Automatic annotation (TrEMBL):
SUPFAM superfamilies: ATPase domain of HSP90 chaperone/DNA topoisomerase II/histidine kinase
GO molecular function: kinase activity
Enzyme class: transferase
Coiled-coil intervals, chain numbering: 170-204
Protein's UniProt name: histidine kinase
Reaction catalyzed: ATP + protein L-histidine = ADP + protein N-phospho-L-histidine
Keyword Phosphoprotein: yes
InterPro entries documented for this protein: HATPase_C_sf, HATPase_dom, Sensor_HK_TwoCompSys, Sig_transdc_His_kin_sub3_dim/P
Sorted UniProt keywords: ATP-binding, Coiled coil, Kinase, Membrane, Nucleotide-binding, Phosphoprotein, Transferase, Transmembrane, Transmembrane helix, Two-component regulatory system
Domain Signal transduction histidine kinase subgroup 3 dimerisation and phosphoacceptor, first and last residues per copy: 202-264
Length: 414
């Protein structure tokens, strides 16, 4: 009941409930006093007109809807106030009230709140015009200009004009605050967009420089290794030159993929054509797992799905994640069991590397090697292809690396 369509928040609901209850309870002794002082009190059938009290409680309960249907409540208030002359005519025989009548203006206790709500919660437009017309009519009836009296006029203005003017001020203030808030949020969004654009431009510039500098040097190394393989006289030198050339070619491929990811994404129209041109070969995780097994760690590999459906950049990222995770196991958890799970889906790749608690202390000389930023580098690499990365201790006393990658990452061509 504290939510839409009645109230926007619990705070609004509590305020309206407290207001309706306060007006209903506070108005009962006032009505009793008015009836007891009324000049025509002897004409009432009962000392306390229960029908009047019941109608007062019901009209007070309508304040619960003051935020939703303020114009309709103004119309109901006008109908209720118009019934006052009819009641006077039925009880006293005349609609004219003596000047010393303690009832003062023809108004109810909930009228100020209804008029205030009509100004604050009615949007601009035709309904706002209707609200003002009803407010003017209520003010005229409350002031009773045909029977002018200082108490009547002042009381009528207090019950009608003051809450309407207060509503004008509060409504204008809220609109100003809302406009300033929207302007600040828009400026913040524009600043974020400008920052993202600056980062994208910087990434593109770095990608171009890295491609121009690093690829040139590696290409020279590959050419020199190829020339050495042709010119070498013994098989061992030719084999070493071929290995060097193959490693250089692989490094160029990886560099090309990384530079393509750093650059701006191509249009969506080229996405399907690029997927068709994906190479059939991806980094082999089984060979990586086998290398770790020969180093004294029991590693199990569980792959499911079709790895040929993912883009090369994602495949190489998954390979680097497994490689770094197994390297950390070698350093910090010797002799433990490792489980590598890879799930290739249609839209994403889920990768998990878990190990149990280490069975013997780590070699300090080995664990102290490296820069200490392997997991940070992995996180950056995963986020580069719009993936998610999580690493931390698991319930088995070991460590777990969990990565989710998109199946396809568009890259810039050229």
């Amino acid at each position: 009941m504290f939510r839409r369509p009645f109230w926007e928040s619990r705070r609004d609901a509590l305020i309206d409930i407290a207001l309706a209850a306060g007006v209903a309870v506070g108005g009962i002794p006032i009505l009793i006093t008015i009836v007891s002082w009324h000049p025509a009190q002897d004409r009432f059938v009962l000392d306390v007109p229960w029908l009047l009290l019941i109608s007062h409680v019901v009209s007070s309960a309508t304040l619960l809807l003051r935020r939703r249907v303020p114009v309709a409540l103004c119309l109901l208030e006008l109908i209720a106030i118009a019934a006052t002359p009819i009641g006077l005519l039925a009880t006293t025989g005349t609609i004219l009230v003596p000047a010393d009548d303690p009832s003062g203006a023809w108004a109810t206790l909930e009228m100020p709140f209804v008029l205030y709500s009509a100004i604050v919660y009615t949007p601009t437009g035709r309904r706002r015009i209707y609200a003002w017309m009803l407010i003017v009519a209520l003010a005229a009836i409350a002031v009773r200009p045909w029977q002018a009296d200082f108490g009547t006029v002042s009381g009528g203005l207090l019950f009608t004009a003051v809450p309407a003017l207060l509503g004008l001020y509060i409504g204008a203030r809220r609109r100003l605050i809302r406009a300033l808030t929207e302007r600040a949020e828009r400026a913040e969004r524009e600043q974020q967009l400008l920052a993202e654009q600056a980062r994208a431009e910087e990434r593109t510039r770095l990608a171009a420089e890295m491609h121009d500098v690093v690829s040139h040097r590696i290409s020279l190394m590959v050419l020199q290794a190829g020339a050495l393989r042709v010119a070498a006289s013994d098989d061992s030198t030719r084999s070493a030159a071929e290995d060097l050339r193959s490693s250089g070619v692989q490094a160029l491929d990886e560099l090309r993929e990384l530079v393509a990811v750093l650059r701006e994404n191509p249009p969506a129209d080229n996405e399907n054509s690029e997927r068709k041109d994906l190479p059939a070969s991806l980094p082999d995780l089984s060979a990586l797992v086998a290398d770790s097994a020969t180093a004294g760690i029991r590693v199990s590999l569980d792959e499911s799905g079709n790895p040929l459906m993912i883009s090369p950049a994602v495949g190489r990222t998954a390979y680097r994640v497994v490689q770094e995770a197994l390297t950390n196991v070698h350093k910090h958890a010797p002799g433990t069991d490792v489980r590598v799970q890879v799930r290739y889906g249609a839209d994403q790749v889920r990768l998990t590397v878990r190990n149990n608690a280490p069975v013997r202390p780590a070699d300090q000389a080995l664990s102290s090697t490296g820069s200490g930023s392997g997991l940070t580098g992995l996180r950056h690499r995963v986020e580069l292809v719009h993936g998610s990365f999580h690493a931390g201790p698991n319930e088995e006393g070991g460590f777990a690396v969990e990565v989710t990658l998109p199946a396809y990452v568009p890259t810039a061509v050229g």
